[in-house]
Amino acid sequence: MLSVTIELFLFYIEMEKFLTITLKESNLSMHKFAKGAVVGLFSLAIAACSSSPEEDLKVKKSSPDILYSQARTSMELGNFSKAVRSLEALDSRYPFGPHKTQVQLDLIFAYYKLDDAASGIANIDRFIRLNPTHKDIDYVYYMRGLVNMQSDNYMFHDMLDIDRTDRDPKVAQDAFNDFDRLIKSYPKSKYAPDAAKRMLYLKNRLAKYSINVAEYYIKMNAWSAASTRAQSVMETYPGTTSTERALEIMAEAYGELGQEKLRENVLSVMKINFPNNKMLSR
């Protein structure tokens, strides 16, 4: 459990930095409240992850059936830290036991509930490699998308209503690819409809990131780069909430570059799709 404790400590340090930066100008009482919440969450997490020597010894002496029963009970009670201890013991001590594949599937879910993306992805990829034709392989691909999508979310950004779509979108892109793979490979999967909905959310998130990049180029007066990036939004993420802004950036960039014909073409598209846009009245 030492590695988990270290990860939680690093999380606490990062949260301290985050609160110092983002709440620097905010109300002091709000700052203290948020910091207190972080400390409380950190303490609870440490308590949840800790285990006594007696418990560890009990786990080592337990039979496969007893270990698995304990793990299932812990999961049903929502104690995923304890469940992981039993499941990891099963996985390492009885790799060919009667519950081997179900143990791996339960571990994937438990890591997801603990927000342990690294362990979750490692176990997912191992399961896919060892069980490519398993009857629940569609679920595993779905879970891969969920784990990556979870990695792209940051709870405290949502709590404080901070827009961070400018952050590195790699895991969001990975999640999008995971769901896309699930839908294309297993279109009749019961997880496909939800995966499709999540892809729409991720598509908007990725498009907004590209818009942020394009707007940065505008600040740098890199008009050609800005138009190219905005055009990529139209081509790669059509129909997203960023479409109108992409057209605006393209029209502005082409105007700055002296590409009047291209600018007029963009304005024509804008007139059809966004007739109330302010750029059309200039």
TrEMBL record:
* Pfam families associated with the record: YfiO
- Annotated GO biological process: Gram-negative-bacterium-type cell outer membrane assembly; protein insertion into membrane
Coarse class of the primary localization is membrane
The UniProt entry, under InterPro entries, shows:
BamD, BamD-like, TPR-like_helical_dom_sf
Q: Report domain Outer membrane lipoprotein BamD-like positions.
A: 63-265
Tell me the keywords, alphabetical order.
Answer: Cell outer membrane, Lipoprotein, Membrane, Palmitate, Signal
Domain of life according to the entry: Bacteria
Q: List GO terms (cellular component aspect).
A: Bam protein complex
State its location(s). Answer: Cell outer membrane
Q: Which NCBIfam families match?
A: OM_YfiO
Subunit structure as annotated in this protein's UniProt entry: Part of the Bam complex.
The function of this protein is: Part of the outer membrane protein assembly complex, which is involved in assembly and insertion of beta-barrel proteins into the outer membrane.
* Recorded family membership: Belongs to the BamD family.
Q: How is this protein named in the record?
A: Outer membrane protein assembly factor BamD
Gene name tied to this protein: bamD
